[in-house]
Design goal:
Number of strands: 25
Radius of gyration: 21 Å
Structural class: mainly beta
Distance between the termini: 49 Å
Length: 396
């Protein structure tokens, strides 16, 4: 059973009695910090693509003040795969540092990890923050709730030192969960949101914004390279873009509005026939989602067109036919982004092939699609807060 509200208040009062020593600001020497993301069953070295820097500089000379390029000073961590479904990275919290595995999520804005106070079954299987062991911990009386597609949590806002590789945010507000539901069996401990601050459920300043305000990040951008085919090398980079992770040029797409990583998508098609988004629609570029998610009726139509058969909560196709399946093309800002069958079909634990198109269980008044890891494995993504835009290019 969960502890009562009164016991939570007692816990808060006890912690508030402690005198907390705050760390001073940490000097930052790196302009770009890359954090490897946990994925994949096997490992490899990061590959280097074609050097297109000169072409990029010619085509996008106006943006040099917004985007920096550096390929060195990589901060590395061991990588691992969770069934080709989740990308995670290490962060540490507290003094001395306590390590956690988190999903870097562009669809949310809050950072949270489990607390020692949480007695939900999900918390018992994850690393919990030991607040009494951190000399820089500070508690508030503010609580909040978040509902995700895969679960929900209730937490309390606290402050402490958070480190993402070489980046250090002192007195960073974040959440400690006191209740969690739906996260049982998830290998990651918590979530690190990278969306705009206006959609924060806790009301806390996101860590990216705080680092930016502190001057720890030289440019207000971050980018993702998600490796594929069971390889090592996934990274999230802060403060600039490393051109070695993509081929050709970055195609810039303006956001529908500042405050959310959503763009206008022109259409979705198969063999030049429009199958969804016929009048244009909204697409959220979502690193925290494994699949490509859309309205039920349209997702069911895609399954019908590729011959997928429902079985339980999944739709399956014969594995022998994967390479013959048509590419599904997402057209964004006039540019086609094809996703071939071998990319949108995965194998389950029994060796059966299933599609990664999933229905959105949250109703919306407008047609909305979530372009998750299936899409982002193919396309390197840059999130430019300075210009409220997203850059996409074919990943190496």
């Amino acid at each position: 059973m969960l502890r009562t509200k009164s016991s939570l208040s007692t816990w808060i009062q006890e912690i508030n009695m402690k005198w907390l020593v705050l760390l001073g600001l940490v000097a930052f020497s790196e302009c770009i910090v890359k954090i490897p993301l946990r994925r994949l069953k096997t490992m490899r070295n990061v590959v280097s693509g074609k050097n297109m820097l000169n072409n990029f500089l010619k085509e996008h000379a106006y943006s040099l003040s917004q985007i920096s390029f550096r390929g060195s000073n990589l901060t590395t961590h061991p990588l691992r795969n969770i069934k080709d479904l989740v990308y995670m990275g290490n962060i540490t919290i507290g003094t001395p540092p306590q390590e956690f595995q988190v999903v870097f999520d562009t669809a949310s804005s809050d950072l949270w990890v489990p607390s020692d106070f949480c007695t939900s079954p999900a918390c018992s299987t994850h690393v919990r923050f030991r607040h009494l062991q951190s000399s820089t911990f500070r508690l508030t009386n503010k609580t909040f709730r978040i509902t995700y597609g895969s679960g929900r949590m209730k937490g309390v806002v606290v402050h402490d030192t958070v480190r993402i590789g070489n980046l250090v945010s002192t007195d960073q507000p974040f959440g400690l969960s006191v209740e969690e539901y739906g996260f049982e069996g998830r290998i990651y401990d918590g979530v690190l949101g990278l969306n705009y601050p206006n959609i924060s459920f806790s009301g806390a300043i996101p860590i990216f914004d705080k680092l930016k305000n502190q001057g720890a990040i030289s440019e207000p951008v971050f980018a993702f390279y998600l490796s594929k085919d069971e390889r090592e090398g996934s990274v999230v980079m802060f403060g600039g873009v490393d051109h070695r992770y993509y081929e050709g040029e970055l195609n810039w797409v303006p956001l529908i509005q500042a405050g959310d990583w959503s763009v206008h998508m022109d259409r979705i098609s198969i063999e030049r026939k429009i199958i969804a988004c016929s009048d244009g629609c909204k697409a959220l570029v979502d690193t925290g989602t494994s699949d490509i998610v859309g309205p039920r009726r349209l997702v069911n139509n895609i399954h019908r067109l590729i011959g997928a058969i429902p079985r339980g909560s999944e739709h399956y196709v014969p594995c022998s036919e994967v390479n013959t399946l048509p590419s599904i093309v997402f057209t964004i800002n006039g540019i086609n982004y094809p996703v071939p069958g071998r990319a949108y079909i995965l194998k389950d634990d029994r060796g059966r092939c299933y599609t990664t198109f999933q229905e959105n269980r949250v109703s919306s008044s407008t047609e909305t699609w979530y372009l998750g890891d299936v899409f982002l494995r193919l396309y390197f993504s840059v999130f430019d807060r300075g210009n409220d835009r997203i850059g996409l290019a074919r990943a190496v």
